[in-house]
Amino acid sequence: MTSALTQAQIREVPFFSCARSFERQWPQLESRLKEVVEREKYSQDIMVDRFESEIRAYTSASYAIGVGNGTDALILLLKAAGIGPGDEVIVPCFTFVASATSIVHAGATPVFVDIDRATYTLDVEQVSARITERTRAVMPVHLFAQMADMAALREITRKTDLQIIEDSAEAIGMRYAGTHAGLLGIGGVLSFFPTKTLGALGDAGMVLTNNPRIAERVIALRDPVLDNAVYGGSRMDEIQAAILLTRLAGLDADIARRAELASHYDARLAGLYPQVRTPAIVRRRDDITAVYYVYEIESERKKELIPYLAAHGVGTEEYYPLPLHLQTCFAHLGYRPGDFPNAESACRRTLALPLYPDMTEEDVDYVCGVIASFYRSVHA
Amino acid sequence: MSPDTRLLEIIHRSGRLQKFILGAGVGLFEDRLKARLGAKDAVAVASGAGALAIALTAAGIGPGDEVIVPAFCSAMVAATVIHAGASPVFVDVDIRTMVMDPRRIEDRMTSRTRALLPVHLFSCMADMPAIVEIAQRYGLTVIEDACSQLGAQTRGISAGLWGDIGAFSFSRGTLMGACGEAGMIVTRRPELGMRCRMLRNHGQQEGLRFIHKCIGVNSRMDEIQALYLIQKLDELDSILAERIRIAESYHRLLAPVEDQLILPPWRSDGRCYHEFVLQTAERDGLRSHLAQRGIRSQVHYPVPLPHQEAFASCLQHEDPFENAEAASRHHLALPMSTGMMDAEIKTVADAIIEYFHS
Question: Which residue has the higher pLDDT, A284 or A325?
Fold first, then answer.
């Protein structure tokens, strides 16, 4: 496919960058880092303590426990909740793999369920059919911009006496009926992977819970020495905590900026409907707070659109090319193509466009212009 | 400039260039370490424990398997075996070196034994020629916990490379401590290295995002750690030499009370002075004597692994773990840090001599 733009018109819009805000925040960050270097304590020390306390304030969680990454946070949370061998945990099949591998690492079996086509979160109506006598918990995943239908899910778990363990790795800032994501069940997690709404410069994660017994277990499990029954522990680096503390101050402004950029995308892409479908926030109730972590669009031609965008300097991510039930790593669970049509259709169409506070409206205009030129060229 | 003063520069650069995890810096550090140790592959991970866990899984250790582990070492080692789904089977250690005694291995073998997991400890590598010989005779895998022994060699072969696969830690207390959590897997078998690369990053084949071949973990090295460790690697030889200097002084100065102590054997092959650890029946008395003089000494493993509650359900044997029990009761790590002055070393040695002479 030939490019509709000349080389001079190409603008680099990486999938993610926080280089500009990093430079702006550097003076503040530098003084925190100097404190770390002076103390010569580089794992889980005062910066992690401070960051945990700030996150408690931000989310209203009783406990916020820093660990090495979001995946470890899920594993530790599952173990702390007593999930183990013989247990089943219901989890959507359209999510990052860690939602399900964490269940395997806890010794239990993931049982997949399809997603709601509009929100990409688990289809609560299908949960009941997946419950067996071994089911111990349901793990909703709050994906991209919004939370799962928690009221409906709680209705089911209340009746069946199941635990809710939230994969809220992407959900910082998201709230449901005023409660922060991760705190609607027994506990949840946060990931601070660099591209996240609140991102570090490396791996870092956290467990959120209001339950003192869960918190106590997680604190023991993350420690490499205290809890002999679990390997190695999982600790957050002080350097990452210093970065996260610095960024947290601007989190609400970042979230607002993401929403502005998302609505700018919505407006610019509206003319390309139905070839391009923009993300929809489903407001089942008034008191939910969505956060545009990912701007996920759908296109029947995503396999051509991705390289076209790349050729024009625009980075994208495929969240996700293959649903979990069809991944080689879960082949032993015996699922087949066609088992979860919504997830499979989402995988054929979804791609994420660049969305981060450092972007300008001009960047968005450019990305949308490239997409429009792609459709002109395929229809020409 | 020392790596610590360069650290801020490294972080600033990572932020400016937006290089986060498993990037070019990690690749470069892997290559440097691979070349230095003579490994076929070096795979950077998030911690020493992560390295050992991934090494076990990559070597195919799983449910139903037994792994022979020394009775005296970090609980993390046996816990990692359990986490892999296998059972640790404890063997006693050598009385002097406190590492796995190869003469005890065959007694502990059953039809389920799949691997030997020697742990190089304090300043001594396990007797790798003997251990590898046993492994070859019985077709067992050898996984080396070399976490604290970067730089040790036996007969010119680095710790971590005698067996099939080995784990290193760069936790702060090690000879080459990172500025956070970091670890490394080394191997002479490229296919094991490939498997580790998938396992460390969610079972993804390198370069293929969100396609998961196997159940992996998240254990990845940050770019900041890699760039910092590249600088530290340049200092490793001088750190090792420095440690030998301090150990030599301890050996020389403690000669007058040598017969009241068990000191680590004095030779250079198979040695790396991460810690200078002596053994004495009067450990607790000596420790408080030193503490009274403001000298901090350390007891690392007060209870042998077979006697710990966490491993109560593991396969046990009737034979006592005599040497592991003695090591637990008797070992004491003396102060040892890079840049330690001769006078400081002498103060410690004098206090020890004073204790035994009074």
Answer: A325
Architecture of domain B3-234: 3-Layer(aba) Sandwich (3.40)
Which residue of B210, B221, B232, B299 is the best one to mutate when testing the A interface, meaning the one whose CB has the most A CBs within 10 A?
A: B210
Q: What is the CB neighbour count within 10 angstroms for residue B33?
A: 24
pLDDT value of position B313:
81
* A280-289, B129-138, B211-220: least confident range: A280-289
Instruction: Tell if the CB–CB gap between A328 and B214 is shorter than 8 Å.
Output: yes
Cβ <8 Å between B8 and A69: no
Of all residues in chain A, the one with the smallest CA distance to B74 is A225
Tell me whether residues B202 and A19 touch, CB distance under 8 A.
Answer: no
Structurally, what CATH architecture does the domain formed by B236-297+334-357 represent? Answer: Alpha-Beta Complex (3.90)
Indicate yes or no: CB of B202 within 8 angstroms of CB of A71. yes
For residue A5, the tally of other CB atoms under 10 A from its CB is: 15
pLDDT score recorded for residue A4: 56
- Chain A interface, best mutation among B74, B76, B87, B181, by max A CB count within 10 A: B181
**Rounded Cα distance, A130 and A122, in Å:** 12
Q: What does the pLDDT read at residue A320? A: 96
Q: Where in chain B is the domain with CATH 3.90.1150.10?
A: 236-297+334-357
Q: What is the ipTM of this complex?
A: 0.94
The segment(s) of chain B belonging to CATH 3.40.640.10 are: 3-234
Query: How many CA atoms, within 13 angstroms, populate the side-chain half-sphere of residue A71?
Result: 22
**pLDDT tens readout for residues B79-124:** 999 989 999 999 999 999 999 999 999 999 999 999 999 999 999 9
Residues β-bridged to residue B157:
B154
Chain B nearest C-alpha distance from A221 (Å): 12
CA distance to partner chain A, nearest, from residue B355 (Å): 32
Q: What is the pTM of this model?
A: 0.95
Strands B157-158, B153-154: pairing kind? antiparallel
